[in-house]
Amino acid sequence: MHAVGVHRYLPIEHPESLLDLQLPEPAPRPRDLRVRVCAVAVNPVDVKVRAPKPRVESPPRVLGWDAAGIVEAVGADVTVFRPGDKVYYAGSIARPGSNAEVHLVDERLAAPMPRSLGFADAAALPLTSLTAWEGLFERLGVDPEGRDAGSTVLVLGGAGGVGSMVVQLAKAAGLRVVATASREESRAWARSLGADVLVDHRAPLRPQLEAAGIQHVELIFDTQSTEAWWDTMADLVAPRGRIVGIVEAKEPLDLGKLMSKSATFAWELMFTRSLYETADMAAQRAILTRVAAWVDEGRVRTTRREHFGQISAANLRAAHARIESGQAVGKLVLEGWG
Fold first, then answer.
1. Residues in domain Enoyl reductase (ER) (predicted)?
2. Are residues 189 and 222 in the same domain?
């Protein structure tokens, strides 16, 4: 089968940073779906995993943690899916990625695609939808059915992949959304997704929030640098407020800054369930099933912004470079095989 992967971890400008490969088709485990991959998306995690390091992969490592495709075969213990089903999923970072014509995914991590979307638009959703849903509704404790309507959430990085889904899910749950975005393109995008207030993260946030009549926010969803925003988040969070972060801190965080407010900080990593094979792994299928329903009902929409053509090493290198530029808005997708 065709696949794209790495032997060596090289700068994205290097022609061998991602390679076109021919690999044997994998055989499913008892709970696996064997999926014919039709479209994939690229996330910052792909760039992080591929970043230069002194290691060689043999056999080569296949990246990719967003896919949409058609089930070709199922393992002996699969109960929910059958061949011919259209599915979308993010999968597990502990297994080979989805940048391959044929991919294996545990059925508990996959869900039926939104009926109203094609493969490319569906592939843009899984990883960011899971991160946004788990962070907003599980870590921050927001009720998805609207019982927290009127509360304010500050989304740091409101036009990125995860931020784009946080803005939409928060609006669907009735929250007032304050989103950071610095460029006109990203501001227009965040506004189109439903952001109520836009602030520029290149300037101090407190004066901008106060100009909008906001002294403190009950909820903060940080999709950017945890340590860079730590003091600002500690200042802006309301007493007994809650903060969630998704970017690993490179320096120690001073939790004492939250003590006087009895504020809560939590990490969100959507790979936790698959990494540890938790008893509730199937919650990710349930989340993606619900997201698909919200898409089909028109409550949220795909965040696909750029289509980089067919799935190939050259096109994936271009998509990785776009992510590394820091200028990406929404999600980047590739579709089909040459």
1. 16-334
2. yes
Average predicted confidence (pLDDT) for the chain: 97
Residue 248 has pLDDT above 90, yes or no: yes
Same-domain check for residues 142 and 257? yes
**Cα(202)–Cα(169) distance, rounded to whole angstroms?**
25
The C-alpha atoms of residue 42 and residue 323 are separated, in whole angstroms, by 8
Work out the pLDDT band at 293, boundaries 50, 70, 90: very high
What is the arrangement of strands in the sheet containing 197-199, beginning at the earlier edge strand? 197-199, 176-180, 152-156, 217-222, 237-245, 264-267
Do 117 and 135 share a domain, yes or no?
no
Residue 338, pLDDT score: 84
- For the residues 15-30, what does the mean pLDDT come to? 96
Residue 320 belongs to domain with CATH number: 3.90.180.10
Token couple for 315:
């096109």
Q: What is the DSSP letter of 136?
A: I
Give how far Cα 113 sits from Cα of 103, 240, 288, 292, 293, Å.
Answer: 16, 38, 8, 6, 9
State the Cα–Cα distance between residues 281 and 272, nearest whole angstrom.
9
The two three-digit tokens of residue 98, written as one number: 């989805």
CATH of the domain at 134: 3.40.50.720
Burial 302-321 (b: 16+ CB within 10 A, else e): bbbbbbbeebbbebbbbbbe
CA distances to 68, 319, 327 from 332, rounded to whole Å, are 14, 7, 12
pLDDT digits (tens, 9 = 90+) for 43-58: 999 999 999 999 999 9
Q: Output the pLDDT for position 53.
A: 96
Of 245, 242, 254, 200, give the one whose Cα is nearest residue 226.
Answer: 245
Q: Which domain holds residue 142?
A: 129-267
Give the mean model confidence (pLDDT) for residues 202-230.
97
Crossing angle of helices 126-133 and 283-296, in 10° steps, is 110
Q: Which residues contact 203 (CB under 8 A, 6 or more apart)?
A: none
Tell me the HSE value of 277 on the side-chain side, using a 13 A CA sphere.
6
Residue 214 near residue 152, CB atoms below 8 Å: yes
Confidence of residue 273 (pLDDT cuts 50, 70, 90): very high
